[in-house]
Amino acid sequence: MILAHCHKESVKSSTIQEQFLQYSPIKFSMELEAAEFEVNFTRKFIVKASNPLVKPHILTLSNLDLLSGRFPVTYFYFYPSKPNANINIIESLKSSLAKTLNSYYPFAGRIVLNPNTNEPEIMCDNSGALVLEAQANISLNTLNFYDLDQSLRGNKLVSIHPDFPLQIQVTYYTCGGVSITFTFDHALGDASSFGKFLLSWSEMARNKPISCVPDHQRNLRISARNPPRYHSSLDQSFVKCTMEEIMNIPTPKTLVKRLYFIDNSSINQLQSQACRNGMKRTKIEAVSAYVWKTMVKANIGTSTNKTHTAMCKMGWLVDGRSRLHKRDPNPNSNLSNYIGNVLSLAFGEASVDELKKGSISDVANIVREAISKVTNEEHFLDLIDWIECNRPGLMLSKIVLGQGGVPALVLSSGRMFPVAELDFGFGSPVLGTVCSTIERIGVAYMNQRPSAKGDGSWTVSCILWPELAAALESDSIFQPMTAGHLQLQS
Predict the structure, then answer these.
(1) The pTM is what?
(2) Element (H, E) at 294
(3) How large is the average pLDDT for residues 99-123?
(4) Nearest CA to 152 among 253, 39, 7, 273?
């Protein structure tokens, strides 16, 4: 554990506690020509809401929160050297975070276990968020953006401290650039929730009113029907599980973590191929079709069933906010500002022969059909009720838990996630992406985000089988991320 040997602690205010840390620099070999990548952690702060709006209380998780898996989720943002050298980045971030936590008070709480159900819940007691400050010995343009294993291994850019559902690491580089990593416990919410929190924080840092008034009414907004009912197919898709099972997901194949850049022209070309014969297909559907075809080309994710037909699976995370409460005439039932988890998984299965011989358009049609099965209110109502019938406990997709019988890849689209907008008062980032520090997972993952360039290009963070990474890189579409893509100066 990195946080050791604390020799001085002082209270700066009632909302920010600071600890100065005595470290030997932590060295990590990065195969750099000039020097090894060293990170020296200098201070840590516990930042609390400056004016808590609610009294300490327990926030019970919704049924869909129990499907989150409790995985840590980390967002990476990289900022080049700043023209305004007078701004004190860490002080500005701490001050604006304390104000933001007034509205997002669960993010300053603790995750505890209910003694009766053993289910996690949020103790909203303003314990605070953890902020770490660190100094790197390299410039940003020498960081290995492509090989995320290098950046994540050894707690370099991310260090996980389970006592804090929200933790932030601010790392300074010799060029004057900065990286900020934000790590959330999945029990706090999903990508939509975290995106709203980060955007609100950046707005607060620039003295602007926050654009989202967060809705924390979890069990009032996500509740089971009476009596609960669901389609029997959910018994085949999801399963009750324990944290121990989640932490020990079988991983027969080694997965690698990579970051790619996809040019806008490549995305448009794939979409054009997917939209042949008068069909309208989204960019995600088109890129999914390309990835699925590449999977079978690399002979990954395939299995043979009883009829000796080789099959391959792919999945997609689906946000239910725009699907739930559609028939509710009450305008306040809208979930657009809801903070919590509202996710489900769609999975498609096709034969290897079908995927190999089919065109991008043909495979995109299979993608559309698979996703459409869960992009409706009835599916989410059924899922909420299925969880209700299986409580107490945690739930997870069988495939994510490694019980799907065949390796699968899950794609998550972050089309609306803030990237270039995340300006905390010292400029916009050159890169915003996501990755997880977890080592054991039952599926491969792809997370798409818009490029900070704002030109329609994408960054795609991946947890992949090495064979699939090699197959993707053999083409020109998935380009290994470099400092050149980010226009970082040498």
Answers:
(1) 0.91
(2) helix 283-297
(3) 96
(4) 39
Report pLDDT for 13. Answer: 44
Question: Would you place residue 19 in the very low, low, confident or very high pLDDT band (cuts 50, 70, 90)?
Answer: low
* Tokens (6 digits) for 217: 């009414």
Spatial distance between the Cα atoms of 59 and 222, rounded to a whole number of angstroms: 13
Helix or strand or coil: residue 268?
helix
Does residue 350 come out as left (phi exceeding 0), alpha (psi in the -120 to 50 range) or beta? beta
Residue 314 is inside which H or E element, if any? strand 310-319
How confident is the model at residue 14, as a pLDDT? Answer: 55
In the numeric block, the tokens 């009632």 are attached to 14
E strand segments, 403-452 = 408-413, 431-435, 444-450
C-alpha distances (whole Å) from 274 to each of 115, 347, 362, 366, 367 are 52, 19, 8, 11, 11
Q: Does a cis peptide bond (omega within 30 degrees of 0) precede residue 227?
A: yes
Query: 265-290: per-residue pLDDT in tens?
Result: 999 999 999 998 788 999 999 999 99
pLDDT digits (tens, 9 = 90+) for 295-338: 999 887 555 554 457 889 999 999 999 999 876 767 667 899 99
CA angle 395, 384, 226 (to 5 degrees): 130
Amino acid at 433: T
SS3 354: helix
Instruction: Report the distance separating Cα 98 and Cα 45, nearest Å.
Output: 11
